[in-house]
Design goal:
This protein is α/β, with parallel strands linked by helices. The protein has helices spanning about 5, 50-55, 80-85, 100-110, 115-130, 145-155, 175-190, 200-205, 225-230, 235-245, and strands at about 10-20, 25-35, 40-45, 65-70, 75, 85-90, 165, 195-200, 210-215, 220-225. The strands form two sheets. Strands 6-7-8-3-9-10 form a six-stranded mixed beta sheet, with helices on both faces. A four-stranded antiparallel beta sheet has the order 2-1-4-5. Helix 5 runs antiparallel to helix 6. The longest helix has 14 residues, at about 115-130. The chain is globular and about 50 Å long.
Amino acid sequence: MTDASASLPAMIEADGLTKYYGQFIATEDISFRVARGEIVAFLGPNGAGKSTTMKMLTGYLAPSAGTARIAGYDMSTDRLKAAAHLGYLPENGPLYPDMTPRSLLEFFADARGLSGTYREERIEAVVKQCELGSVIGKAIGKLSKGYRQRVGMAQVLLHEPDVLILDEPTSGLDPNQIREVRDTIRRLGQQKTILLSTHILQEVEAMADRVILIAEGRLRFDGTPAELRRDGRSLDERFHELTRSGAA
């Protein structure tokens, strides 16, 4: 955590998060906090434990040990209160290909209990925010992956969450689509706290205020992108150094 953010309220907290599957250790003793207004890249190679940690933070997976908090609420005891502050976009978001973006947003608005004028205002707001106007009536299954990611982002934003947890939001996109998603995330970062899972080093340079890096289920680095590139080494070099098998 940077000096500037250390005094701000913690919106995401991992306290000793650990997950075992029998003898396999998916994550062990992962601890960090993300302050209000930070965009943090959650970095690591495939299989490092990023998605497992995110699922524990969002309450989709119960930890074997440790505590996850969103906006100060313990996910194991106050999940509904925490969920009111949280927008979670998994790598393969819950999209229904036969629905249109509008019908999907209406479905999720109803599921979240939005009603009346506020319901319509929020749908229109996220359509504008995620630039979905040109495809609002098309079947989601016929949209490009870039637009499907925008639809997923829109439904995550419907209830105006303070915190966004995004798992590999640019995975499988072409360079133009990646730029569009990055621009959207940067805009959102002006008002939201964002934890962004990735294994793509360019994401760190493009979006993050801070980097949390894990490998083999353990936290290996927590600091700014500039601190990660210490001694003039590239991000590639530091990534390799910190994620190679047996690195401390």
